[in-house]
Amino acid sequence: MMLHTWNQRLEHHPHVHALVPGGGPSLRGDRWLKSRHPRHRRGSKPYLVDNRRLSARFRKLFIRGVTRLHRQGRLRLEGSVGTSSIGDALVELLAQLASRDWVVYIEAPPHENASAEQVLKYLARYMAGGPISDRRLVSHDAEKVTFLARSRDKLKSGGRAEQVPVTLRGDEFVRRWCLHILPKNFTKVRRFGGYANRHCQAYMNRCRDLLDLADAPSSAPHPDITPPEETCEGKVSSRRCPRCRSPLVCLTQTDRPSWSLVMASGDRPLWYRDG
Length: 275
Description:
The chain is an alpha+beta fold. It has a domain at 219-275. The chain is 25% helix and 18% strand. The strands form four sheets. A three-stranded antiparallel sheet has the order 5-6-7. Helix 1 (51-71) packs antiparallel against helix 3 (89-98). The protein is extended, with a radius of gyration of 25 Å. Mean pLDDT is 78; it is low at 222-229 and 257-275.
């Protein structure tokens, strides 16, 4: 489960993305159980869980957790709520939250043959990425910043909303960016159940045994990543020029971003056509 605090316009929009496995060991641990997809009472398509019931349950547990933390003195609040006891302003705030419908959105796979790797790749961007990527930045000057964001206009015939330019003052852009700097030692990603840190190794071994899978793959470096101490200068690559198909020779090299190379420096390959 990953915390995500922004929307495309960098506004404060806290929500979580949860990845739920499609099966797992039985409670006794002696057989593998697949998830079942019952039919929705209001439609013909199968569904994972009832989003309305999940919404109510999450709301209940969230409010209960906030109340417990405040009573234990572990919740730091500011403003009118921070100066009150659990019996006045905070209770009123939680009552307002309890009276509203909380949004739970369960997105279907992009197509019938979608693999688990596609879902993991989508969620991985929220683990390592920031509020906005470089490719969404259009222009900036001494006063304003313009970037692309999803349009708020509702689509009449489905599909994804188009990207439209959004212009903010420089100080407002920085203010919105700073909204998403998490406190020190704050845990952004958590794993639960069998995937929790203290149970994960034994749980994964049990899953592999039940599914008759080989051991976990080794943590060898990605084949596309060249260690920083190596260089490709002067080497002829198997890559070829897309126009004349002549071999390419490496001039310099810059490694692609990688957690294993965060503290290392290097160059990405710069290729030229020999002759």
